[in-house]
Amino acid sequence: MFAQTNPKIYEIIDNVSSERIEHDVRILANFGTRHTLSDTVSETRGIGAARRWIKAEFERISESCDNCLEVSYQKNFVEKGAGDRIFEDVWVVNVVAVKRGTKYPNSYIIMSGDIDSRVSDPNDNTSDAPGANDNASGMAGTLEAARVLKDYDFEHSIIFVGLSGEEQGLWGGKGLAAHAKENNWNIIGILNNDMIGNIKGVDGVISNRDFRIFSEPTPPTETERQRRARRFYGGEVDGISRQLARYVHNTTSTYMPEMNPIMVYRLDRFARGGHHRPFNDLGYAGIRIMEAHENYTQQHQDLRTEDGIEYGDVVKHVNFDYAAKLTAVNAINLASMAWAPPAPENVKIGGMVEPSARFTWDKVDGAAGYKIYWRETTSPTWDHSRYVGDVTEYTLKGIVIDNFFFGVAAVDEEGNESVVTFPSGVIRN
Ligand SMILES: [Zn+2]
Predict the structure, then answer these.
(1) Cβ-contact 5, 255 below 8 angstroms
(2) Shortest CA distance to 328 belongs to which of 60, 144, 68, 184?
C-alpha cells in the first residue's frame, strides 16, 4: 500500500523563505524600470541589468547543487509594430533554468514569473516602474522555488523561468511556447505566477490565505469532433488546464490546509491577460496563480500621490510571508507532479443504462496503482476518489454514470499522483 502523504512535501513548505523573497523583490525593484524596451546596457538600471542578475542568480543556485540547473537565455526577436506596444525592434529575452528529470527528461512542468514591469503608459520605457508586486513577486517566488527544489531528484524536468515582454503583449510566453512546440517538449503544465504578494484588496478585504487559480475550461485547440462529443459525454469544464487547476487545489488542500485556494472558471481576469495564455493557445495546460485581492492603485501606475492616495507598485505593499505561501504552493505542486508517474492515457468510460461506471486505461510505466476520481457535475473539485490498485480496468459499482464526472490518476508508492485524466473515449457495450 502506498503512503497517504509524502513527508518530503512538508519539508519543501518549511524551506521556503520569505526573507529571501523579500531580498529578491527589493533587488528587482531597484533596477528602476524593467520595461521590456528599457535600457539593456546599464549594469544598474533597465531590463538588461535585471535579466543578467536573474541569470546570475540561477547560476549561483546551480553551483550550490553541482550544476543541477541548465541556465540559459531564450531570445525572441520582435519587430517594431508587431503590436501597439512594440515601438522599436526588440529582443524579448527570457531566462530559463531547467532541472532535468531523471526518467522523463523531455517532460516538463514549468513555473514562471515575469521580469518586465510598466507604469501608466505601457510604452513609457524610462520612468521608474518598480513592479514590486507585478511581477517581481512572481519572479522572486520562481527563484525561491528553484532554491528549495534544487537538491531533490525528480523524474520529470522542472523549468523555472523568468519571462519578459508580458506587459507589451505576452511576447516572452509566446516565444517560449513556440520554442517548446518546435522542440517537441511534452509539457505537463505551466504554473504562471503573476502578482503573488498583495493581501489588501482595493475593496478593503484583507486576507493572507485566499488566492486564485485561473484556468480555461477547454483548450482552444480542440477539434470540432471533440467539441461535438462534449455534448454527449461531458467535458465542458474538464479540459487539461482545468485538471491542472484542480490538481493544484487538491495538493494545496492536502498539504497546506490553512490556505484558501479559489478556483476561478475563466482563462484570466475579465479582459486581462497573463503568460499562461500563449501556452494555452498552443494546446498546453496552463494556469495562473495569483493573489485574490488586487489593488489597482498599486499596479501599472506612475509613482505619484493624488488626493492623498499613493499610487505605484512599490515594495512596501508586498506581503512577503504571503508571497512565500504562494511560492510553497508552486513548489509542492512542481515536486508532486515531477515525482509522480505520467498521467494515464487513453482513458475510456462506459456504463450507459447500468448501475455502475466502467473504466479502462493504458498501463502507466512506474505507477504503483491508480485512483479513480469523481464529483457531482456541479462541483469544481474532485471530491470523491477510490484507489483501485495496479489494474487497467475497473468498475465502480452502484455509481450511476449520468450523475457524476469521472477521471483517472496514476499513483506511485510514495503517494505522488499524476494530474487526473478526463476520459477521451467511450467503452461500447
Ligand atoms: Zn501587469
Answers:
(1) yes
(2) 144
CA 131 / ligand 1 centre spacing (Å): 8
Using the mean position of ligand 1's atoms as its centre, give its distance from the Cα of residue 299 in Å. Answer: 7
Question: Could you tell me the distance, in angstroms and rounded to a whole number, from the CA of residue 194 to the centre of ligand 1?
Answer: 8
Residue 134 Cα to ligand 1 midpoint, Å, equals 5
| Residues 6 or more apart in contact with residue 340 via CB below 8 angstroms | 155, 156, 410, 411, 412, 416, 417, 418
One pLDDT digit (tens) per residue for the chain, 429 residues: 456 789 999 999 999 999 999 999 999 999 999 999 999 999 999 999 999 999 999 999 999 999 999 999 999 999 999 999 999 999 999 999 999 999 999 999 999 999 999 999 999 999 999 999 999 999 999 999 999 999 999 999 999 999 999 999 999 999 999 999 999 999 999 999 999 999 999 989 999 999 999 999 999 999 999 999 999 999 999 999 999 999 999 999 999 999 999 999 999 999 999 999 999 999 999 999 999 999 999 999 999 999 999 999 999 999 999 999 999 999 999 999 999 999 999 999 998 888 899 999 999 999 999 999 999 999 999 999 999 999 999 999 999 999 999 999 999 999 999 999 999 999 986
Q: Are 199 and 151 in contact (CB under 8 A)?
A: no
In the reported structure, the alpha carbon of residue 275 is separated from the centroid of ligand 1 by a whole-number distance in angstroms of 10
Find the 117 Cα to ligand 1 centroid distance in Å.
Answer: 7
Cα(198) to centroid of ligand 1, in Å?
13
The alpha carbon of 271 and the centre of ligand 1 are apart by a number of angstroms equal to 13
Statement: the pTM of the whole predicted model exceeds 0.90: yes
Cβ atoms of 176 and 74 closer than 8 Å: yes
